[in-house]
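Shipment paperwork, digital attachment
Item: protein structure file
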Amino acid sequence: MSWNDILAFVLRRGVRTGALELTLADGTVQHFGPGGAPDVGVTLHDPDLPRKFLMRPDLAMGEAYLDGRLTLRDDDIRSFITFALRNGKGRRLPPPLPQLAALWKRAKSWAIWNHIGVARRNVAHHYDISPELYDLFLGETKQYTCAYFRRPDMTLEEAQAAKMAHIATKLLLKPGMRVLDIGCGFGTLALTLARDHGVHVTGITLSEVQIAEARRRAWEAGLDGQVEFRLQDYRAVSESYDRVVSVGMMEHVGLPHLGAYFRKVADLMPQDGVALIHYIGRWSPPDTISPWFNKYIFPGAYCPSISEAMRVVEKTGMILSDLEVWRGHYERTLQEWLKRFDRNIGRVRQLQDDRFVRMWRYYLQSAELSFSEAHMVIHQLQLAKARGTVPMTRDYLYPARN
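Attachment content:
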């Protein structure tokens, strides 16, 4: 039996929704599925792809698309990934395959050792590229994290401002407080907290591109005396801070380092300290992220389930004073980023090559669908060291409603 035959056998048994028209490298055309949406046309230009799909489907599909060895009808990435995710749900493998797969995934998660040197290389892989690229799709606030669409008619800029205001309220800021921003990105949150709340902010990142941009923006805003940006790993911070905030950075810590991360957060704060940790998590049991994402987009990344995060938080002595789960917000954010990316795609092609453009469009759409079709959500953990630091009710978060 050839690899083509094995792939056809697997698809006949596995495709339960939608329709797939598959054209093999030898020109053979096959159809799978009951019909309806998503209706996908896939052409394989490499005769070895059936074997690669069966061995490592996620990685093989993404790489083949990047290299042009796999093409899609109308270049419809969204339908292709939706088809794959929907038909991948609920697959039942005979014992002991599920147990072996779970053990392999767990071992792979624990194998991601992001010591300081590796962490810096991982950050540089994604963030230390042309700073203009991010200007083309992130919008005026230049925030590379999930926005907060409190109203459905919000623009991306309004939703990013709403997120920062929401986080500031949860931090219970007072003028003169010292705030640490772990993974400060291009500095927007740090600058906003300093400007709007009169606090002193230290922002740390491992990206040289981000730190240069953040320092420039602080100087232009006249806040360079109130905000400090450092090229520094969180593990190397030794000062004490009244508040700690981290938005979209914990995903890059790696499973083996979650304990060290939360212990550091606890150690940096006094007894009346408060931390707000915002990260991509999952509502499902623990699992690895896509191997394609890990290789091409975010090396060393891991998105923990709430059980994994809390298992280590509980050992620090910090109190989980508030847990918020955002659903639907990152999908909207990623859709807005893709619209702006496509609107400026001519300039993107001047900055990068066609393969990069294919990779980025594949990344943005597969990321969006990992939230809308799979298990990803945003978790916001508000952590306190003392029982009475945070109000007993959530009324303080929505004063206009009182």
